[in-house]
C-alpha cells in the first residue's frame, strides 16, 4: 500500500522520528523517494488500513462501528504509532457504541476493555474495568498478550492483596475484641460469639495467617462472600434484662458488615490520573 510520508509525519510522532535523517527509513526516503515498511506480527493489517484511512482523510472508508476485538487491535497500533489525537473522533464513536457490552466478570473481553480505555484515555471505562478485575482476579491479571503496562497490572493486584489483608487483620482484631477482659454484652454472649467466630474463621480459612501476604488463588469477592456467611448459633437468652426468654439478637454481622463496607471505596477501580506517564504522552 502506498501512503504519504508527510501525512504520517503529521499524525504520528513515531513516523516523524523514523523519517529523520540518521534513521535507515529516513535515509532511504531521501535517497530513493520512497521506503518500504513491513508490518510486525502484532500489527493487524485490517486495523492498520482503518488507521491509514483516517490519517489520509479517507473518512468515508472508515467504519462507524467496530467490534471489541478490532478496536483492541486498532488500540495496539495507535499506541505503537502514538497517533492518539488523529483517531480520537472515531475512537470516541467506536467506544460509545460498545459501552453497553462491558463484561461484569473476569474474561478476555474485560482485559481488552482495560487496554482500550488505557490507550484511548477513557477514565470512566478504565475505572469500571479495573474495579471488576480487582474484585474478581485471584492473581495478576491475564493480559492476553496485550501490552498493558506492568504498573497497571501491579496496581490492580495491589488492591486485591491489600483489601484481603485488611479483612484478615480486622477479623483478627474482632477475635481480640471478644476475647478481651471487657464484657460487651454478657459473658455468655461474648463467649458464644468468640467461639463461633474462631471456628468459622478456621473452617473458612479467614484467619490472619490465611489472609496474609499475596493470597494467591483468592479473590476479594471470594473472601467477602466467606466473611458475610460466617455462621452463628441461635440461642435463648434473657430479653432486655427481664426474666422472659427469647432468641438472643447479638450477631456477627453487626461487626463484620462495617469492616467490609469500609473497603468498598478502596475497591472502586483505578484512576487514569494516578498514572502521570499516561497523561504525559499527550503533552
From TrEMBL:
InterPro entries for this protein: BTB/POZ_dom (IPR000210), SKP1/BTB/POZ_sf (IPR011333)
SUPFAM superfamilies hit by this protein: POZ domain
Top-level division of the source organism's lineage: Eukaryota
Domain BTB: 1-64
Protein name stated in the entry: BTB domain-containing protein
The species this protein was found in: Glonium stellatum
